[in-house]
Amino acid sequence: MINNLNTWNELFKVRVNLAVITTTLAGYILATGSLSYDVIIPTLGYLIVAFGGAALNHWQERDTDALMDRTKNRPIPAGKISPLIVLLSSILMMTIGEFIMFVSSNMTAVLCGILSILWYNVIYTPMKRKTIFSVIPGAIMGAIPPIVGWTIAGGYPFAPEIITFAIFIFFWQIPHFWLVTMIYDLQYEKAGLPSITQYLKPKEICRLIYIWILATAMCPLFMTFYGSMQQITLVCIIASGVWITYIERKLLNNIETNFNYRQSFREVNLYALSIVLFLTLDKVFYLG
Predict the structure, then answer these.
(1) What class has domain 159-288?
(2) Does CATH number 1.10.357.140 belong to domain 1-156?
(3) For 145-166, how does the pLDDT look when each residue is reduced to its tens digit (9 = 90+)?
(4) What's the confidence (pLDDT) of residue 124?
(5) How many Cβ atoms are within 10 Å of 208's Cβ, its own excluded?
(6) Which pTM value belongs to this model?
(7) Domain boundaries in the chain?
(8) Do 268 and 213 meet the contact criterion of CB atoms below 8 Å apart?
(9) Residue-averaged pLDDT of the chain
């Protein structure tokens, strides 16, 4: 029983998708200034959609997963479950999730949910096999969930405030993805997947990562142009930006083969989480 639960937990990428739902709820809070019972059912529907998309991704990448040490023990390549069951389950989950969103939310949110699946499974996943620039559609994919949350609240999907927040999520994911690539670069090459490490030296990649971190730290400041922001929130955002750009200076001096990319990965993610927290709390206290 436990093994079965672990299998489905991995297929649905539960931990990753809980992070996705966190930004979805952040989008809702940015629109309303609070959390209400109205958000529970449509967000649950979107979570089920995300579970279905994750399972479909496992099915799509089952061949390359078998070639990488990091992924060879995933359910399909490890023989824990048949590819057909995964495919049918993914279709069922996405259908159920979209239906829940349809009956509990609005058509804009439903369409955004469909867009996120199409972008993830039809555009991003196939591109990973072909080009190092798949990081761009991958980052766009990560920027969609907060827009879903915003539209669940009835917001206009192209409102400047949520687009600015989505751009922040987009910028953060570029260094996020590249740090993952640096951690597992040899495994990507073994699986025959294109990697930025095949074109640039580690020192050059680290400089690019740092530039994207600088850009990420600038993004939240632009949210001050759209709506009011409490002074303490602005101070926290600036302080967090100074912190992440200061501690990641080590990327500019990377001349070692044993550079701790995992530590930078954790620090960049902690920074992003703190910004999401500061912005949502600001809305709760300002609008709530």
Answers:
(1) mainly alpha
(2) yes
(3) 999 999 999 999 999 999 999 9
(4) 96
(5) 15
(6) 0.92
(7) 1-156, 159-288
(8) yes
(9) 92
